[in-house]
Amino acid sequence: MGVTSLSSTGSCKIQLGATCNCSHACVLIQGEITLQFFQMAQQTSAWRRYMQAFISGFFVAVPVTVTLLDKLAYVARVEGASMQPFLNPDVGAQCDVVLLNRWSVKNYHVQRGDIVSVVSPRNPKQKIIKRVIGLEGDFIRTLGYKNQYVRVPDGHFWIEGDHHGHSLDSNSFGPVSVGLLHGRASHIIWPPNRWQHIKPSLLPNRELLYTEEDGE
Amino acid sequence: MFRSMLGKALGLVGYTIQYGCIAHCAFEYIGEFVVCSGPSMEPTIVNHDVVFSERMSRHLFKIQKGDIVIAKSPFDPNMNICKRVIGLEGDKICTSAQSDLFKTHTFVPMGHVWLEGDNLRNSTDSRNYGPIPYGLIRGRVCLKVTCNLLSTRLDDSTPLEALLRHLMK
């Protein structure tokens, strides 16, 4: 005979001698076969709930994090001596960590004197961090480029590291296309004693010769 | 009642943010549909063609010679150009026209690519402005979406007007 009663705790009681075709574990108690699937069911549903929570959390957390890093802000460590003495002033100490603002460059608007990170024109897997010296239409006096005076072409800008001689910048590979702009460094966030907001400023010997901007 | 409405509004905002981020990741890392305009890639891609460009090859640095790529224009970062890769870094490119007697060559610098359109007579490409940095490439064109319904369009109308005209016939 089949199942005679089904209690609320989820155990089936069947008569002695009958067969049970369900998938629950059967425990023989006092002449009755009582099926206790309470404990096993708890384990199965806990594992499934954990997996569901993990997968749904994964599909929420990863796209949101990736979008935030692409569109809003990015944290990066500065390596090398090309921006001394402003960034990484002590050679032996820890490297500076800067906050790169990606929202402010989404329309490719930068100012002269900003510190920006660009995709290196020599090596697309690397990002370099330099200061903007001139925008399109400006006339620049170069330090070590093949021409002494350069007019920055349309859609390009001229970047230089503060530490001339230790810097791979526009003096080596010429004006850089604005499409390679990656982010603008807005704050130094590590080490804590160098916490500051970075303001756009040009070194005194790197002023422009002439600019074609309207009104000047 | 106000609290339940606020809860529903917050839930809606949360779902919008989540699906917006998933869409951004899909367009940025998987692929996107692009409408091409201009005659520089004829006969492969004609004016007003819709193509699908995938982003994975660009992020994994697997763009090869002969691929058609979408790149940001070196003179205006808000404009895109669609050309074929003729040479990768280190390749030797023949820059003289076919009618010249003496052939001139250049080498593509490190980290740059040389692009040319298929319609050589009507294309401004690396023969005019030189090799462009690899970092400007956005994606590789892998599929072209063709729709026979739009093959009867006139030259000056948009595909939507041509479709409506066709349906009203």
From TrEMBL, chain B:
Entry GO terms, CC: mitochondrial inner membrane peptidase complex
A GO molecular-function annotation: serine-type endopeptidase activity
Pfam short name (any one): Peptidase_S26
Enzyme class: hydrolase
UniProt keyword Hydrolase present: yes
Residues annotated as catalytic: 40, 83
Subcellular compartments: Mitochondrion inner membrane
UniProt keywords, alphabetically: Hydrolase, Membrane, Mitochondrion, Mitochondrion inner membrane, Protease
Segments passing through the bilayer: none
Keyword Membrane: yes
InterPro entries for this protein: LexA/Signal_pep-like_sf (IPR036286), Mito_IMP1_subunit (IPR052064), Pept_S26A_signal_pept_1 (IPR000223), Peptidase_S26 (IPR019533)
Start and end residues of each Peptidase S26 domain: 19-97, 101-143
EC numbers: 3.4.21.-
GO BP term (any one): protein processing involved in protein targeting to mitochondrion
Subunit structure: Heterodimer of 2 subunits, IMMPL1 and IMMPL2.
Family: Belongs to the peptidase S26 family. IMP1 subfamily.
PANTHER family: MITOCHONDRIAL INNER MEMBRANE PROTEASE SUBUNIT 1, PROTEASE FAMILY S26 MITOCHONDRIAL INNER MEMBRANE PROTEASE-RELATED
Name this polypeptide is given: Mitochondrial inner membrane protease subunit
Species the sequence originates in: Fundulus heteroclitus
